[in-house]
Amino acid sequence: MGMRNVRPWAALAVGLALLGVGNALCGEAIDWNKARQLIERSRRGEALSAEDQAYLDRARAAKQRESARQPGVDASGIDWNKAGQLYRRSQTGEKLTPEDQAYLDKAKAAKGAGGSQNAPPQITGKESVGLTPLTDLKGDQKYKEMDGGLYGGGRNEPPEAQAKLARAAAAQIAPLDAEGEPAADGRIALLAIGMSNTTQEFSRFKQLTDADPAKSPKLVIVDGAQGGKDAPAWVNSEPVWAEADRRLRAAGVTPQQVQVVWLKQALIGPGRRGEFPAHARELQRDIETILVMAKARYRNLRLAYLSSRIYAGYAVTQLNPEPYAYESAFSVRWVIEEQAKGKAELNADPARGEVKAPVALWGPYLWADGTKGRAAGDLVYRREDLAGDGTHPSPAGRQKVAELLLKFFKTDPYAKGWFLKPATQP
Asked: How many helices (H) and strands (E) does the chain have?
């Protein structure tokens, strides 16, 4: 078997053993079998403990240190032989893994920054990127010719027509049996759809909510989001949906009992899709398709709450840095605007014909300008809120998002009726 077919961490362990470097970092040996297991768990979207994440970060640092001593590797940590191979593979039409694509993007950025292999990466962590949160962008303020507000025109509340649809949809949410029929002992399933950040945040939200005495006993929360599965993966891969269905079964509910989804999606390497608004329009189209697919699969789906990315100013790769994370909010807004304008493919109004999508609304808006936060004063992102790559949330970051989600569902006028016990509803 060639080295190309060996998993990266296994190849690294073999290489280090051959080189006899002792697998040491700051005097502490790295167990590469353990590191490989941790990276696999992380890629599946599993939330690592703080201790395991720290161990994985040390292993990655050891890998980078060794790479700097290998032929073809310069001070930027880029193995240009590897980058060249990845580039040639991509040019032949081969679809790279997310990890390989991120590596190639990093190499392109390093070369483009200074025109030589010794150039440093373009992306460096920043405590603030100077952008105005969409919720605070009002009046004559604009971002690249786009006005502000979650719903446009500086508004952070849905327009009346969309609110009316949401009220009607929420009124239909009730406990259902396994066949999707009303039942006093039935269940209401809330399903998450998304990628790695989504599952990391939602899994913590589920823990908090299941322990909250105010939660409705009829509500079953299911994390269907999956690591590495960005928006195109949900559009193009049936196995992704099959895995979500498997998780529903494991939670004791059926697709017929899914009535609400939280959808948070992104594109891997959005910079490859072109500058704003090109990449944001592509994400918009994917989200629209996912909503239609979800309605076809979950016939009792009534409401879809959409959220965009958290702050990515600390990102150190091209996976999904700023301003792409910030700009993804416009993708969400455009989806809701299209439905509100009566787009037939997104119809959620029975009076207008066949219902093809759930009513789309904003969930919690999760972006804030790093340590500068936002006007509401309820959210800032410090470096410790992000993992080593500056893109995925650390345990502290997951906690922040989980708390925002819980607060949102307990107070949203279209959610609290089915989310909370009747006696605890405001």
From this structure: 13, 7
The Cα 348–Cα 350 span in angstroms is: 6
| Separation between Cα atoms, residue 178 and residue 187, nearest integer Å | 8
For residue range 365-422, list pLDDT tens digits in order: 999 999 999 999 999 999 999 999 999 999 999 999 999 999 999 999 999 999 999 8
Structure tokens at 368: 């804030």
How far, in Å, are 166, 233, 261, 282, 337 from residue 159 at the CA level?
11, 31, 21, 24, 9
pLDDT in tens, 149-180: 999 999 999 999 999 999 999 999 999 999 99
Six token digits for residue 425: 């509803």
CB within 8 A of 323, min separation 6: which ones? 129, 131, 276
Distance CA(307)–CA(281), nearest Å, equals 16
Sign, Cα dihedral of 417, 136, 196, 230: positive
pTM of the model: 0.74
Name residue 189's beta-bridge partners. 220, 258
CB atoms within 10 A of CB 237: 13
DSSP SS3 for 18? helix
Q: In the block, which residue shows the tokens 């993804």?
A: 328
Q: Is 176 helix (H, G, I), strand (E, B) or coil?
A: strand
| 260/266 Cα distance (integer angstroms) | 20
What is the b/e burial string over 314-346, where b = at least 16 CB atoms within 10 angstroms of the residue's CB? bbbbbbbbbbbbbbbbbbbbbbbbebbeeeeeb
Report the candidate in 98, 65, 101 with the shortest Cα–Cα distance to residue 82.
101
- Are 118 and 111 spatial neighbours (Cβ–Cβ below 8 Å)? no
**Closest CA relative to residue 330, chosen from 190, 143, 162:** 143
* CA-CA-CA-CA dihedral for 410, 414, 420, 422, to nearest 10: 130
Tokens (6 digits) for 30: 């790295």
Partners of 191 in the beta sheet? 222, 261
Please answer whether residues 121 and 109 qualify as being in contact, where contact means their C-beta atoms are separated by less than 8 angstroms. Answer: yes
How many CB atoms sit inside 10 A of residue 120's CB? 15
Structure tokens belonging to residue 240: 């992704």
Alpha-carbon dihedral 115, 389, 287, 303, rounded to 10 degrees: -160
d(CA 403, CA 312): 19
CA–CA distances in Å: residue 272 to residues 109, 114, 169, 275: 12, 20, 38, 8
